[in-house]
Every structure is written in C-alpha cells, then in structure tokens.
Design brief:
This protein has about 170 residues and is mainly alpha-helical. It contains 5 helices and 3 strands; from the N terminus they run ααββααβα. Strands 1-2-3 form a 3-stranded antiparallel β-sheet. Helix 3 runs antiparallel to helix 4. It is globular and about 60 Å long.
Length: about 170
C-alpha cells in the first residue's frame, strides 16, 4: 500500500473513530442525564421492542466479572487492543472497509473507556426485546460499534488467495 493510501486509511480510522465516540457520548449524556434515565431507570420508547433501561456495567459483556474490581484492567485492555489494531493496520494495511471497521472498534472502545474513567462503569441503556422474549441485558452505541468493527475486521481483512488447482 502506498504512503498516500495509508494516510487516507488512517484518516478514515480517525474520523470513523471520532464520530463513533462522539455519537456514543452524546447518546449516553442525553439518555442518562437529560432524559433522567439515571433516576427513572426505565423509559419505554417503542414498547415492547425498544426501551431504555439504566445499567451500570463494571464488568465486560453481559456483566461478566462484574463482581471484581477490574476497572483499570479493562481500561488498559481497551487501550491496548486499540493500540494493537493501529499497529496491525500500519503493518498489514487494508482496504477502506478494514480501516472503517477499525475506526468503529476503536471509537467504541474509547467511548467505554471514558465511561469507566468518569463513572467507574459503562453506562448501558439500550434494551431490545421481541416476540414474548424479554431481553435482560442493555447495551450502548459503543457496544454496537465494537461488535460491528470487530466483525468487519474479520470479514474484510486477509488476502484472498486463489484456490489451489485440484489434481
């Protein structure tokens, strides 16, 4: 990959990460503080499909390891993974979808890092249920971005090697 293409790729990582981070922090602020979810704990948006449920997650996905004080370890892990993704992109390069995916993942990770620094836990508030199934878990914009970014990195990275001819 040429130097210009690499610069453009990292520009895409920056802007995708920046807008993801900003959207995550704005939605958390609006829902948790402006709409008062912190106090109300539950706001029906489009019942029964979408509602806001306040959940402070000190652990990892789905509250795993919430009983342990892992705040600083999880902050270090998120920053470490973000740094690794940037290092890997610098070394391996990629296409625009790879860089976009990396930006989503990094922007989401940094959004959750800010929550852990400010509140000691991640502010989760989105809850989706359907068809008689009540989902007990909540998530946020950063979680969506991390998932989509990680999935995108899996899908859009690696060289497509031609199939070996069969004998």
């Amino acid at each position: 990959m040429t130097g210009r293409a690499t610069r453009n790729g990292f520009r895409l990582v920056f802007w995708a990460g920046f807008w993801t981070f900003l959207l995550d922090q704005i939605t958390k602020f609006l829902v948790v503080h402006v709409l008062g979810l912190r106090v109300l704990e539950r706001i029906e948006v489009l019942p029964p499909f979408i509602e806001f449920r306040m959940a402070w997650n000190p652990g990892v996905n789905f509250g795993l390891f919430a009983g342990f004080d892992m705040r600083w370890a999880l902050i270090a892990l998120a920053i470490g993974i973000s740094g690794f993704v940037l290092w890997w992109l610098k070394r391996e390069g990629g296409n625009r979808w790879t860089y976009l995916s990396a930006g989503l993942l990094i922007g989401g990770a940094i959004g959750n890092v800010v929550d852990r620094v400010l509140y000691g836990a991640v502010a989760d508030f989105l809850n989706m249920s359907c068809c008689g199934f009540e989902n007990p878990y909540a998530f946020n914009v950063a979680d969506i971005a991390i998932f989509v970014g990680a999935l995108g990195l899996v899908i859009f990275t690696g060289e497509r090697k031609p199939a070996k001819p069969q004998k």
